[in-house]
Design brief:
278 residues; alpha/beta; 8-stranded mixed beta sheet; 3-stranded antiparallel beta sheet; 10 helices; binds S-adenosylmethionine; binds zinc ion; RNA methyltransferase; methyltransferase activity; rRNA_m1G-MeTrfase_A_prd; methyltransferase; RlmA_N
């Protein structure tokens, strides 16, 4: 079976097309990339930094949390935004466990590329859907995909490099982002000091994308839901806060401060962006 999405991939060293061999991808220049035992392709270029990728504990927490279904309401607006006719793969940058990409592949019948800098995330993503090719790479170091090769680019709570996304996105394709609103995950910061990822800020999102994309739709997803203390812990354990606290310290902080159940605010924006003609 060939590696899903191989036609869209390119060599991180020379940019040449990649072909599929016995559990390895290689280019004409002789650069070769052995697939990991768990099925992902390590297309890691020079100067890549993989240290920002989620660690094993964060990935396990994310898997557990998503399995609980709390973010299921994001799926429909993502699917709707991803329904385009352009040719190419569906690429998910910072795909994590592949939860959103697998759903898009299931609905659209496309082939997908899930890119992440965490090998722990990719072990899951590689199994999330048979048409999903999992790729280890640093999203800030040049995407190992050829020009115009993606019909859809997903970017859900993850880093984004506007220039390179524009390069790989087909002119008739779409970029779909999911970003947290300021009140997302209230009232958790009242109980535990939370690290706020940079992409939390709406103006940062617009600033980072508006030179290369025009936003064509914006769908707010906003609801409140009761959750128990265990779920609070899982949410904190999958995010950047987990890196600040050690596992024991995080457990104690949650047990000491969070009531048995709380009402959680979930508030995100699903945005559709069209590539600007530059
Ligand atoms: C908040 S998680 C979101 C994961 C997934 N999109 C989801 O919502 O379930 C951010 C993801 O970005 C990945 N990531 C962080 N820095 C990255 C980088 N420089 N290049 C690629 N992926 C990166 C992390 O490993 C993690 O899987
Ligand atoms: Zn090469």
């Amino acid at each position: 079976m060939s590696f899903p999405g191989v036609d869209a991939l390119c060599c991180p060293h020379c940019g040449g097309a990649l072909t599929d061999g016995e559990r390895r991808l290689s280019c004409e220049e002789g650069h070769a990339f052995d697939l990991a035992r768990q099925g992902y392709a390590p297309l890691v270029g020079a100067h890549s930094n993989l240290t920002t990728g989620d660690d094993a504990g964060q990935v396990q927490a994310r898997q557990d949390f998503l399995a609980g279904g709390l973010y299921e309401p994001f799926l429909e607006p993502i699917r709707a935004a991803a329904a385009v006719d352009a040719p190419g793969v569906a690429l998910d940058i910072g795909c994590g466990t592949g939860y959103y990409l697998a759903d898009v592949l299931h609905r659209t019948g496309r082939t997908g590329v899930g890119l992440d800098s965490s090998k722990y995330a990719l072990r899951r993503a590689a199994k999330a859907h048979p048409a999903l090719g999992a790729v280890l790479a640093d999203a800030w170091r040049g995407l190992p995909l050829s020009d115009d090769s993606a019909a859809v680019v997903l970017n859900v709570f993850a880093p984004r490099n506007a220039v390179d996304i524009h390069r790989v996105l087909h002119p008739e394709g779409v970029l779909v982002t999911v970003t947290p609103d300021p009140e997302h995950l209230e009232p958790l910061p009242k109980f535990v000091r939370m690290l706020q990822p940079q992409e939390r800020k709406e103006d940062k999102l617009i600033e980072s994308l508006s030179s290369h994309f025009e936003r064509s739709a914006r769908v707010p997803v906003h609801f409140e839901t009761p959750i128990d203390r265990k779920t609070v812990h899982t949410i904190l354990a999958m995010g950047p806060t987990a890196r600040h606290y050690g596992p024991e310290e995080l457990r104690r902080a949650v047990d000491d401060t969070v009531p048995e159940t709380i009402d959680l605010t979930v508030s995100v924006t699903v945005s559709t962006w069209l590539p600007a003609s530059l």
